[in-house]
Task: inverse folding
C-alpha cells in the first residue's frame, strides 16, 4: 500500500468536475462498452438525443452521490488560506461523447419535476464535502473572520453545506449571535438547516441556552399562543428537532425528553405538514434517542 495507484484511482472515481463519458450501443441502449458512431447519431437525430438524455439521467444520481464519498476520502486533508476563499469543486451533470471527439451533452434539467430542484441537495453535499476537507492545523486558521469572509452575497445550497461541515468539525463556535442572525434572516431553507445542525453539532451536549432558543424558534408547534405566526418548511422544523437532540445529547434532560416524545406523534406546523410528517417524526425520534443516550 502506498506504492500502487489505488489512491489515485479513488480520487479519479470521485471526480465530479468533468463530464461523464457516455456511449450508446448500436441499438440505442445505454450500454457502457465501446460504441460505433452510428449508434450515437447527430444533434438532429431525435432518437439519439432521447437516448443520450436517458443515459445522463441514469448517471445523474451516481454523480450526485460522489460528494458524499469525497467528503470521507478528503476529510481533514486541506487547509484554509486566510487570504483566499474556499473553493467548492464543480458538480457537473453533463456527459461527453468519446465517439464524437468528446462533444459535451448537457443534462436537460427542465425534464425534472417542476416542484423540486434536482441539483439543490447534491450541491449541499458537495459544499459539505469541501468543508469537511478543511483542517485547522494551527491556531490562526479557520477563524471567525475567515468564515464571515466566505459568506456569499446570495445564499446557496453549497455554502449551506459548508456551514454544516464547519459545525460538525466544531468551528461554528467561533461565530457570534449576530453572525448567526445574518445567516438566518436570509430565510433560505438550506442555510437555516446548515446553521441549526452545525451550531448544535459544534455545541453538542452543552445545553447552550442561546443555541437552544435558536432551535425552538424554528419549532412553531412549541411557540406560545400569542407568538406571531411563522411559516417554516417541514425540512427546517425537522432540522431544528434534530438540533435539539444534538444540543442535549447524553444529558437525559427530562423536559426535553417529554417535548421530543410529544413531537413524534405531532404534525409539523405550516402548509407543508402533509408531506413532511415522516421526516418530522424521524427527526424527533432520533433527537429523543440522542438525549437519552
Result:
Amino acid at each position: 500500500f502506498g506504492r500502487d495507484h489505488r489512491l489515485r484511482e479513488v480520487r479519479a472515481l470521485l471526480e465530479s468536475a468533468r463530464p461523464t463519458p457516455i456511449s450508446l450501443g448500436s441499438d440505442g441502449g445505454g450500454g457502457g462498452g465501446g460504441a460505433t458512431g452510428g449508434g450515437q447519431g447527430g444533434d438532429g437525430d431525435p432518437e439519439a438525443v432521447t437516448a443520450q438524455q436517458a443515459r445522463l439521467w441514469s448517471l445523474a444520481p451516481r454523480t450526485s452521490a460522489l460528494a458524499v464519498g469525497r467528503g470521507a476520502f478528503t476529510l481533514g486533508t486541506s487547509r484554509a488560506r486566510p487570504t483566499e476563499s474556499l473553493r467548492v469543486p464543480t458538480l457537473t451533470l453533463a456527459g461527453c461523447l468519446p465517439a464524437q471527439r468528446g462533444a459535451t451533452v448537457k443534462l436537460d434539467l427542465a425534464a425534472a419535476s417542476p416542484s423540486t430542484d434536482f441539483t439543490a441537495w447534491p450541491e449541499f453535499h458537495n459544499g459539505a464535502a469541501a468543508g469537511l476537507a478543511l483542517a485547522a492545523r494551527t491556531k490562526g486558521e479557520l477563524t471567525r473572520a475567515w468564515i464571515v469572509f466566505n459568506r456569499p452575497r446570495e445564499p446557496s445550497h453549497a455554502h449551506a453545506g459548508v456551514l454544516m461541515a464547519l459545525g460538525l468539525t466544531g468551528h461554528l463556535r467561533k461565530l457570534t449571535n449576530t453572525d448567526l442572525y445574518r445567516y438566518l434572516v436570509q430565510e433560505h431553507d438550506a442555510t437555516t438547516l446548515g446553521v441549526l445542525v452545525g451550531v448544535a453539532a459544534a455545541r453538542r451536549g452543552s445545553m447552550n441556552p442561546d443555541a437552544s432558543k435558536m432551535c425552538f424558534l424554528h419549532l412553531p408547534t412549541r411557540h406560545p399562543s400569542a407568538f406571531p405566526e411563522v411559516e417554516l418548511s417541514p425540512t427546517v422544523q425537522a432540522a431544528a428537532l434534530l438540533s435539539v437532540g444534538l444540543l442535549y445529547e447524553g444529558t437525559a434532560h427530562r423536559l426535553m425528553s417529554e417535548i421530543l416524545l410529544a413531537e413524534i406523534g405531532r404534525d409539523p406546523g405550516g402548509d407543508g405538514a402533509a408531506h413532511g410528517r415522516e421526516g418530522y417524526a424521524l427527526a424527533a425520534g432520533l433527537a429523543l434517542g440522542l438525549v437519552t443516550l
Q: What stands out?
A: The radius of gyration is 22 Å. The longest strand covers residues 95-97. Strands lie at 20-21, 95-97, 103-105.
